[in-house]
Design brief:
Layout: E1 4-9, H1 13-23, E2 28-33, H2 39-46, E3 50-54, H3 62-71, E4 79-84, H4 89-96, E5 100-103, H5 108-123
Helix pairs in contact: 3-4
Keywords: Phosphoprotein
Organism: Sphingobacterium bambusae
Protein name: Response regulator
């Protein structure tokens, strides 16, 4: 079985580092991008099975990234987990096309459950 790829896109280095640590025990390759302007290129290049994306980032926002993925033939089936501390974040993320939304601060077990679901989803 080919190793799954998870791409994390968040402009907060602390969150990226925490997610990398949480996900290192999974049998998956974890790729991080803190610059939202580069994530479109990285998504096409890496073709991850799962994207974990923050909603509010400077320049390119998470919902713009989600819409880009959903309109791109080679990416539109990707599982997207959107994270945000925003009050209306869930509404914005789901309207853009996210599969799952978790509010910050999120429960580690909830996040790992979603990642596990996404990996199973990617195998089907």
């Amino acid at each position: 079985m080919e190793q799954k790829k998870i791409l994390i896109c968040d402009d907060d280095y602390g969150i990226v580092n925490m997610l990398e640590l949480m996900l290192e025990d999974l049998d998956a390759q974890v790729i991080s991008e803190t610059n939202s302007t580069k994530v479109g290129e990285r998504l096409i290049q890496e073709q991850p099975d799962l994207l974990i994306v923050d909603l509010w980032m400077p320049v390119v926002t998470g919902d713009e990234i989600i819409k880009f993925i959903r309109q791109h033939d080679g990416l539109k089936h990707m599982f997207i987990l959107c994270i945000s501390a925003s009050r209306n974040g869930e509404e914005v993320a789901m309207e853009a096309g996210a599969d799952v939304f978790l509010g910050k601060p999120f429960d580690m077990d909830d996040l790992l459950d979603v990642v596990q679901q996404a990996i199973v989803h990617a195998e089907n």
